[in-house]
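From the methods appendix. Each design record in this collection lists the tokenized structure first, followed by the designed amino acid sequence. Records were kept in a plain field format so they could be parsed without special tools. The example shown here is representative of the layout used throughout.

RECORD:
FOLD TOKENS (217 positions):
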């Protein structure tokens, strides 16, 4: 009887951890799709301010911005809380993971460290970005351009852009590997694809920032 109770106690955290991992993967995958879509939509300004304003107006008129924005923010915070379960916050834990990474020289371990670091940056900067945008609706090309041309915000987005795209790219790769979507023989090809995808989105982001910098306001 005692053995059965102990077994249940041991199995419950295991099932709970699995469910939380599954939820972390789902929120992560959703945020990856959102960030890629967000980049494409914002980059519409490269086709002209009118193109971006038309898309933004559609999201406003359908209340997707007013409702979807807070929902994305909630998913963002939930994903961070779930992922934080495995992030080494204590000094001795950080020393151990860095020592471990240098010792085994395993690429996927370094990718996890990159993802953990970028997550901390995104938590702060991403929250600032979302709060600034959602409290200043409606979204327009002129508002975005004025913000970036303000000096501080230009540097802000030049830092946030690579942090987000690195985190999203590594997350895409790690989801595929962890959940069996890419076998060991496919990892090199997947890494090359992920690196190319990340570089492409960073380039699109840089072009878009330059466009906002030069857009008349």
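DESIGN:
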């Amino acid at each position: 009887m005692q053995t059965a109770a102990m077994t249940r106690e041991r199995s419950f955290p295991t099932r709970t951890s699995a469910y939380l991992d599954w939820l972390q993967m789902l929120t992560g995958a959703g945020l990856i799709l959102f960030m890629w879509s967000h980049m494409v939509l914002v980059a519409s300004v490269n086709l002209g301010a009118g193109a971006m304003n038309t898309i933004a107006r559609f999201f406003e008129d359908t209340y997707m911005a007013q409702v979807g924005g807070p929902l994305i923010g909630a998913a963002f915070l939930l994903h961070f809380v779930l992922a934080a379960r495995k992030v080494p916050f204590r000094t001795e834990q950080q020393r151990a993971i860095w020592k471990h990474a240098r010792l085994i020289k395993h690429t996927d371990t370094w990718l996890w460290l990159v993802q953990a670091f970028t997550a901390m940056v995104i938590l702060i900067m991403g929250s600032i970005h979302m709060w600034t945008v959602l409290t200043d609706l409606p979204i327009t090309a002129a508002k975005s351009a004025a913000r970036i041309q303000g000096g501080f915000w230009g540097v802000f987005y030049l830092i946030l852009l690579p942090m987000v795209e690195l985190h999203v790219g590594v997350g895409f790769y790690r989801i595929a590997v962890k959940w069996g979507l890419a076998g060991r023989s496919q990892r090199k090809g997947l890494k090359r694809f992920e690196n190319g995808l990340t570089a492409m989105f960073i380039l699109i982001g840089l072009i878009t920032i330059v466009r906002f910098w030069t857009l008349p306001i």
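APPENDIX NOTE: Confidence is low (pLDDT under 50) at residues 1-12.
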